[in-house]
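Throughout our pipeline, every protein is held as a single compact record rather than as scattered files. Such a record has a labelled line for the sequence and another for the backbone structure tokens. This encoding replaces a full spatial description with a residue-level series of whole-number codes. For reference, a complete record is included directly beneath this paragraph.
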Amino acid sequence: MARASSLLAAALGAVVVGLVGVLPSAAVAGTAESGLWWFDRGNIQAAHDAGFDGDGVTVAVIDSQINPDAVGLRGADVKVVEPSYCFDAGGQPYPATSTDYVAASHGTNVASMIVGTGDAPAGGVPIKGVAPGVELLYYNSGGVLDGVESENSVWGGDAECLLENGKSVDDAGQDGLGRAISDAVDAGADIISISSGGGVDSVAQIAKAHAAGVIVVAAMSNDSGSAGFPAAMNGVVAVQAFGEDGNIQIGDSGKPNLSDDVDIAGPGLNVLLQGSAASWDEQLLGSGTSYAAPIVAGMLAVVKQKYPDATGRQLVQSLIHNTGTKGEHEPVWDRSGGYGAASLTGMLAVDPTKYPDVNPLFDSEDPQAFPNLDDVERAAAALDTSAQPSPPTSDVRPPPSGIAPLSPWLIGGGIVLVLMVIGGIILAIVLARRSRR
């Protein structure tokens, strides 16, 4: 999840978990260009020049509202799914798009990391995405602002994201995030990028994605040392953030954000973002796993274009076998960056069809994992028998005793939603992930 801007802390009335510096467009030249370190170091332009920009690949992003008219997204192949997956208490959907910076900056910049066109405001620095050639399906499942106070919301002045029935979770155990995941799979997404979180409601939908061979990439927490759901779910690519110096981010505790949940590290510290509270034409530097996750998703999309016969599971194999700058190697994991820094150059150099068609991050032997093998097999059976499958209520495993579903949460450049963590959920996550290791 992305760290927040101190500029909006007072307005949001939320906990500030990081800092970003706002740079007026007229003064961005040297400093703002430093926010493109990740693009240059990752040899992204070289991949584009070779003809690999994600063309023919479909990526779904599930996030807050989005401003598709922001400079850098104009002209991009972004299909915003309406109606939104967020409803008010009366069952009316909120729009998936917004020009309000607080509501839309997180999602707008997450999408830009993938499909940014390279256009810039007057005097600004071009921000180009990793995979500007992809078809991007955009789903709003959390983070709306309608100017009313909500007793159930932790954002001052924003509205709670409910389902049509006025509840946060329906009888089948689905929330907005789960529905968006399921619909993204049905819509033919090859990769799903999530820089937000929720409860265990999306177990059946993550299982459905696994059964369909769809890669799910999710941002870890910036500070807690645990990934939270869905990043901590079985088989999901949990993404850590690192900076230009190669070090992972430092949490509020002043210590590195080490975790038992991390799978891969992506660039996410001091990256250039579009928009500020003053104007969408300003640019700023921001930090967080929210930006690292879509960058990793974009890399996978570019590799998918070059090797169209590779399955999603083989692409994940390539991701962890080709990290850093040392070329292809046997995966080695640690609590800092997981299997290492994602490398577009490394993955493009190796045909992933050589790897086993097995998700190396999925623990098929742990019956308590979320999801477990039975969940995925049920989802696969549903996909075989239905064009638009919906997991039956009886097949949805309830959360462990004493664990309540978590409300969707976003922590972004100018947006903060505080994650309410119950002790039992941490234990469940740790046990499930340690079992994998």
User: Anything to note?
Assistant: The mean pLDDT is 80. Residues 9 and 215 are 34 Å apart (CA to CA). The longest strand covers residues 58-63.
